[in-house]
Amino acid sequence: MITAVFGDAILDPVSGETTPGAVVVIEDGRVTRSGARDGVQVPRDAERLDASGLTLLPGLIDCHVHLTNLGEGLDFARELTTPPTLELMRAVRSARRTLDAGFTSVRDAAGTPAGVRMAIDAGYFPGPRMFVTVSALSQTGGHTDSHFLCGADLDIPLPDRPYMVVDGVENMRLRVREVIRAGADWIKLCTSGGVLSPGDQPHHSALTVDEIKAAVDEAGTQGRKVMAHAQANAGIKNALKAGVATIEHGIWLDGDAIEMMLDGGNALIPTLVAPHWVIRHAEAGKMPAYAIGKARAVIDDHKASVRLAIESGVKLAFGTDTGVGPHGSNGEEFLLMHELGMEPIDCIRAATSVAADTIGMKGVGSLAPGSWGDLIGVPGDPLADLSLLARPENVHLVVKGGEAVKSKHTANT
Ligand SMILES: [Zn+2]
Question: pTM of the full predicted structure?
Fold first, then answer.
């Protein structure tokens, strides 16, 4: 099948250039030609997709989501009465909403089994291209240890979602092997405490450098990289020393941590919007008290830390932790990144070319010939108005692999 998408303009995130009167030709899921209309030959038998009034750009990438999390606050009674199959089915709705918001690729940062990625690839339901981490590994009492003070453990291991608690180097190797066996594309570790877990603190480090190294080594042996939930300064540094690829959240970066990231070429995935959602849910009475206090305590330091990273030239890749907030709301992160000093083009790069490079997903984040035909259309110039990417209703067209999966033009006629 050949599709030709005719838009008002096309924005190339790499060059930052906007070409007016543009067309993108997609054959059998891959871009074969793109650019100004007069320079691109459109095959006679191409199906013509009218995107007049829209600026076209590559489909967006979110490097940190949780598709099986509802994103509607934390309600333990609800979780206790949710069977694993229902939890899994949440991903179907999340996947659709993510796609509708213009995000055609995501890296899931735990909770979602590999079967969801396989189902989307098989066409069972619409959703973004996915990399999954399956289970987020943390130490006893750490961020993903779901034991509560009453003694109950809410982490029920499934055949395709291994147990998440791990202590010691040998045990870490075993756990990483289990997660890879379950289909993980990336390994997720928690090298510090977090906001939504009851028994730990964001400013405390977790796992030893040796434990993290064992995970990095084991992952590397099988062609995977490690992403670290790392909020505490020491947790960030331990993760970097041990060789992880990406730092998630990064609430307490300092000059030394920045230096390490610049030297190692590591990316920061800020997830600035996540603590805002914790506070919004709290104000709606949908958050336990311990999480509210922690979110309020970190939000300003988080901003200062990310601002420092931007000023220092650290590589920033777009990620939201959506699943804390509702699916489809991912784009708000653009506004927060811009507020902290990132130029609009750099915000867009963070969610396209830089994100693709960071997570190592081939053929996404670009409309160059050979890339997957994933693109979006927005009514105006996103470089002049980032809010065009911030709200799903502004994303009028979403094409994945050459197929229109959302089209306001079609819906209106
Ligand atoms: Zn997360």
Answer: 0.97
